[in-house]
């Protein structure tokens, strides 16, 4: 999971979302959930919302939770069942794959003792404030209660994801070393190609974690098997190109 920059919607889409919300607000509390669900399924504005989320997502429209699979649906971060009035709230929309949306997260939305969400919204906060990726194993360790809940609810340590992250690390390492060779040859086109290979990879969290951990305490230990890679990850020009 990485930080995602949320972009603005077209004015007419903002207006359409506001009107839809007011229609839900106009019905009784008992009717709001069904009304909101039906309205969302029938609304043409979903197409614009989905397209905008795709533009925001990493690489080839990757899921904003796991980062592995292609995002196929609009997820309501705070579920419609819990908050019907947020059904058409742009700030409540994320792009998710079928596994994360329908099989892992579903309608779960844990909150703390005072009602604050215990799930990470990657468009509103930096996931790395709450999560630490163990690069050698491809699994997350939680740094906060919010990190722990997100790992559990979104299934961020399911076996397939861990294997995918370890594979992604190998691809990133190979691409960065080739980037450095191209840099020595002053081949800017090749350098750009290798950067694009890294940027288009699934599991963007792997590269982002590598870049961040390169300056963290214990970096020499984390990258003890590849000191040349650590030197690369500390290069300003590479970091400027890859850090989101």
UniProtKB/TrEMBL annotation:
Gene3D superfamilies: 1.10.30.50. Residues 48-102 form the HNH nuclease domain. Pfam families: HNH. This is HNH endonuclease. Keywords: Endonuclease, Hydrolase, Nuclease. One of its GO terms (molecular function) is zinc ion binding. It comes from the Bacteria. InterPro entries: HNH (IPR002711), HNH_nuc (IPR003615).
């Amino acid at each position: 999971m990485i930080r995602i920059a949320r972009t603005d919607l077209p004015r007419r889409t903002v207006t359409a979302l506001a009107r839809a919300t007011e229609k839900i607000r106009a019905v009784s509390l008992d009717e709001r959930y069904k009304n909101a669900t039906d309205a969302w399924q029938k609304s043409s504005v979903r197409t614009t919302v989905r397209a905008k989320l795709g533009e925001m997502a990493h690489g080839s429209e990757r899921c904003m939770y796991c980062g592995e699979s292609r995002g196929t649906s609009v997820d309501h971060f705070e579920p419609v069942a819990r908050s019907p009035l947020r059904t058409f709230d742009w700030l409540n929309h994320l792009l998710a794959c079928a596994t994360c949306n329908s099989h892992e997260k579903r309608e779960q939305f844990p909150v703390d003792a005072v009602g604050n969400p215990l799930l990470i919204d990657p468009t509103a906060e930096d996931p790395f404030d709450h999560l630490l990726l163990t690069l050698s194993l491809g699994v997350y360790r939680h740094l906060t209660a919010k990190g722990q809940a997100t790992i559990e609810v979104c299934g961020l340590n399911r076996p397939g994801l861990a294997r995918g992250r370890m594979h992604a690390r190998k691809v990133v390492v190979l691409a960065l070393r080739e980037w450095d060779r191209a840099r020595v040859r002053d081949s800017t086109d090749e350098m750009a190609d290798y950067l694009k290979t890294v940027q288009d990879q699934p599991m963007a969290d792997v590269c982002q974690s590598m870049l961040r951990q390169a300056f963290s305490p214990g970096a020499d230990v984390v990258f003890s098997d590849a000191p040349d890679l650590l030197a690369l990850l500390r290069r300003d020009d590479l970091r400027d190109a890859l850090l989101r």
